[in-house]
Structures are given as C-alpha cells and as structure tokens.
Amino acid sequence: LLSPLLLSEDISNLPTDLFVDGPIYHLATTHITLAPFYSSWFGYAPSGAIAFTGSNLPLALDTQNLQALVRYLTTFLERAYLRYRTEQQEIVFDVINDITLSLTSTLSLEDIFDKVSNPIRRIVNAESVSIGLYNPSKDELIFVRELLGRSFLNLPTIRLRPGQGIAGWVFENKKPTLVNNVYDDSRFSSEADEQSGFVTHSILCVPLLVEGNAIGILEAVNKHIGRFDDADLDLLQAIANPLAIALENANLHSEVLSEKRRVEMIFNNMSEGMLTTDGNGIITSINDALLSLLQIDSAEVSYKPAQEIIQARRHNLSDFIELVLAAKDDETPNIACEIYAEYPSEAVPVLISGACIHDKKGMLLETIFVFSDLREIREVERMRDDFFHNIVHELRTPLATILMYARLLKKQGISAEKSTRFISTIEHESDRLQTMVRQMLALAKLEAREIQRSQIDINLNHLFAEIIAPLSDAATNKGLNFSSQIEPKLPLLAGNREILYSVFKNLIDNAVKFTQHGTIQVNVWHTDKELHVIISDQGIGIPQEALPNLFRRFYRAQTAVEQGIAGTGLGLYMVKEGVEKHGGQIEISSVVGKGTTFNICLPLST
After folding, report:
1. N or C: which end of the chain has fewer CB within 10 A?
2. Which class does domain 106-256 fall in?
C-alpha cells in the first residue's frame, strides 16, 4: 500500500481487509489519500504514512506540496523517535541494573524467582515468564512451579528432556530463539497447554549459561501487544547472564549448607571425641562426645587454646601438635596417652589422631583432632584375658580329672564298683568338655552368620520338649521346683534350630545353675505374629549396675564370680545374638537375692 508515490483513490476500490483493523476504515467515507514516511531508522523503508480522508485534499495542499510536507515532518518524527528510543533504553538499562543488583543481594532460589519474574514480565510486555532448571541426575529441565501461574498450580511439575520442545531445543543448542507463532514451529510441544488449558501463541527463550555450560532456560510467553522482536530478545539475554550466575551461586550455596549440615551431624554424632582448631591453636568447634569425655560444658572451651583444655599426663601435647602441623598430607600422626577429665585424679586413656586442612595455596585453615576412648577397648581386652584364663581353667579341670581316673583304671586290683564310679566321672567330665566345645562352635557359627544359610521350619513343641526334659531332671535332683507351661500346639517358626536350641537351653541351664533353692518357671505361648518365652528363677539375681553389660562378650557378673560359679562369659552374649539374628528381642529384669526373669519375643513364620 505504501509505495514511493502518493496514493489517492476511491476507497471502494481498495480491499476492505487492509483497513478493517485500523481507524482509517472508520473515518474514510469515499476517498483516502496516503503519503508514506521514509526514515533512516528503518533503512529508508516506509515507516508510516500521513492520511487524508475524503474526496479532496485541503486547498493549500497538492501532490507536490504534500510530499514536501512529508519530508519536513519526517525530520521531526525521527528526532521524536530517537528520543523515544533513548528513553526506552534508559528504562531498560535501569531495569536490568535493578535486577542485577537485586540478584547479587540474595542466595535464596525463592527470592531470585520473586525478584525477576514481575520485572521481566513488565519490560517485555509478556503474559508469562518461566524458568526451567536442569537436573543432571534425571537429565531433564524442571520448570519452577511458582512462576507458571494459576493454571499450573494443581498440575504435575512440567519436565522436558533436552531437545524436547522449544525450551529443550534452546537448552540443548545453547542458542536463543524467537517464535511469534508457535504452531508454525515444529519444535513446539503442546503437552503443557493441553494439561493446563493455557494457550501459547509466542515464545521468547534464551539459555542460562555459566562458563559455557547450560544450567537452564529463561522464557517469556505471549506478547501482550504486537510481536516479540530482536530488542526483546537482546533484553532477555542481558537479564539471563546475571540470572544464571545468581542461580548457580544459590545452588552452590545450598550445596555448601547441605554439606555443612551433613558434616555437623557426623561431627556431633560421632562416638569418638573431636575438636578443631584454627591456625593459632584456638578451639573452633568441639563435639558432644569429647565434652562428655572431658566432663565439661561447651561454653568453657569455645575459642580457647586447645593446650589449656586438653591436659595430658606424662606427655607434652604441644610436641604432638607441632608433629601434626609438620606432617605431610598423607600422614596422620597419633599418640596414645591419658588426658585429665574434670578432676585431676581421673585420667582417661585415649588415642589422639591429628590432621591439617590447607587451602589451595597451602595455607593452614584448621586442624582436626580425634580422641578415641581406650577404656572400652581395654575393658574388652581385660574381659578377653579373663575369658582365656577361665577357658583354660575350665578345660584343665576336666582334662586333669579324666587323665587321673584313666590312670587309676590302668592299675591292677581296682574293684568293679570303683571302676564304674571312675568311668562315670570320666563320662561326666567329657560331657563338660563337649559342652564347652559346642559353645565355641556355636559362637563361631553366629559370628559367621551361618543362620542365614540354614533356616528351616522348626517344630517348637518338639524343641522345648527336648530341652526341658533333662534340665527339669537336673533341677529336681538339685532340690528345686521346676514348672513349665508350654502351649500345646505352637506354630512353626522359621530359623536355625541349632541356634534356637542353644538360646533356650542356655537360659534354662543358667536358671538351674544360679538357683540354690526355690522355683524355676518356663512359660511359652504365641499370639498371631509372635512367640513369647518367659524364663524366671529365684536364684542369686544380678546387680542393676551389671545389667547394661550382661550381654557383652566375655562379661561375667561379679555375683557369679564371687560365688565360684564356673562360666566363660559367652553364654548370654550368644543368647542375645541368636535372638536378634531371628529378628527378636530379649529383655531382662532382676533383683539381687530374689531372682531373674528373661522375656524373649520372636516373630513367627508367615
């Protein structure tokens, strides 16, 4: 329509669709006269026109004068347009500057989304702004739900694979794109529109790049007035650069916080004591285990020299710290010593290990010291020594008896009565040896987890009958009352028969062994899902202070030791191991001089 020449024509001869969307159609009656403007801003292509409606031009204007008028007006229009563009650029620069400053002031992803969405939407005049962030573990772009609008609130999170849809293409190719009619673009995916009812017409999408790596995309959807242009694209790219850096910083900050929380949790929940010091030896952190070991409060040690807090007996801690500071990165010096707790009279044996942490330039950041409490280790060593002493004694006594009576049987002139008695004694002591050997084998099987390889359905009534018969006789022969109430039709239980036999035999045998007079009671019944076994006696009982250690390997209560009752300290350890390996629980209650009760609960076969 806007040719280099003036156009003056009867409007009825022109296509109606050229004017139906504009004001000229409504004003013109019969004639329209148009003169185009040519501006250097548009490459000397027509940038607009001046229009006169009606059949005649004003008297002062003819075709020649009208062209002169247009040239005159073009100069002023160019100046006005230049001023308009300058003002627009100033506004854009101010907005970009405000967005950049606001992004540098936060490390929260939620704050970043809130700070960028509305300004971008206003400045590009778009209906919607969205951000898709790349999740490497799932290899997909995940769109931030809060930015998508109400249409998407009740829908699943929008996810795109790299290369899928226009956003996926931008992410994969790391190139911006401008699409003013998405339905003419083969890359467009309408899945989100179909789910939400939102209608996408146009998209402006740019990649979010950090050091050349794409971390997501930023897109504006549906221009309110007109079409997206290159100026909009440049604007979005200008915002995308600081936005990408802000998002990356926020992600890194979140990862650092998560790692910090993880390290703090490990630090505070370690069984070993730990403390860290700065380059000057000042304590920067100390965990609960070390505070408990030293019997002090954290307020007493924070930001104090480590050498003031950690007092070692017969060792100079300063020398050890110097050794740690001089150690190479792959070395971890350690020292076994005794440190004082709250009172100088109480020294705690510990193993101290130390290591330094340096920055990239080799500067010392902090030093970490780990304190391993050796009291428990030494207690285990003591119990192990006692065990070997006891086992040697337990083996030596029956072996010496067997050897003595065997030699007596070799002599001539021994009566038949004595021979029978000697043989019975040899048989009894052999049974004792066999019991100890079986106990050691059972322990080896437990620790080798053989139970997991040999589970069968166990007939519990047969098992208890086999255990109780000889032990009830032994109790009766000792002058004790023995009572058992076994439910007649117990269900099958999946497990290792040999280990369960050992568990219940150990407990009932101990009841007989540690009861001098009174009653031993065994009750067995089941519920829908569990087997319950209660074994109680009226024996010597167990001190309360011994109960926490009762199931530890090699441990023997002092009451048993004082009364000279033989044992290895393995029986109850094996009982607890056997019960727990069958998924069960064992509880104990005891009163010294009145007796002990064991309560066992095992899950039944399903």
Report:
1. C
2. alpha beta
Q: Give the DSSP letter string of 554-591.
A: T---HHHHHTT----S-HHHHHHHHHHHTT-EEEEEEE
The pLDDT tens digits of the residues spanning 410-426 come to 877 778 888 888 888 88
- Is the pTM for the entire model greater than 0.90? no
3-class state of residue 260 by DSSP: helix
Domain positions in the chain are 7-83, 106-256, 270-371, 379-603
Strand order in the sheet with 7-10: 7-10, 31-39, 45-53
Of 584, 586, 551, 542, nearest to 570 by C-alpha is: 551
Residues 302-328 have a mean pLDDT of 80
Q: Distance between CA 403 and CA 433 in Å, rounded?
A: 13
> How many degrees, rounded to 5, is the angle at CA 11 between CA 6 and CA 16?
110
Largest Cα span, the chain: 166
Name the token pair of 198.
């939102």
CA angle 552, 558, 560 (to 5 degrees): 95
Tokens representing 550 are: 């009762």
User: What is the pLDDT of the chain when averaged over all its residues?
Assistant: 79
- Given the candidates 1.10.1040.10, 2.40.50.140, 3.30.450.20, 3.40.50.300, the CATH classification of the domain at 270-371 is 3.30.450.20
Residue 520: pLDDT over 90: yes
CB 178 within 8 A of CB 187: no
Amino acid letter at 159? R
Among 90-94, 257-261, 501-505, 577-581, the minimum mean pLDDT is found in 90-94
pLDDT greater at residue 115 or residue 296: 296
What's the confidence (pLDDT) of residue 346? 72
Estimate to the nearest angstrom the gap between the alpha carbon of 119 and the chain centroid. 37
Q: Do domains 106-256 and 270-371 have the same CATH topology?
A: yes
Query: Under CATH, what is the fold of the domain 379-603?
Result: Heat Shock Protein 90 (3.30.565)
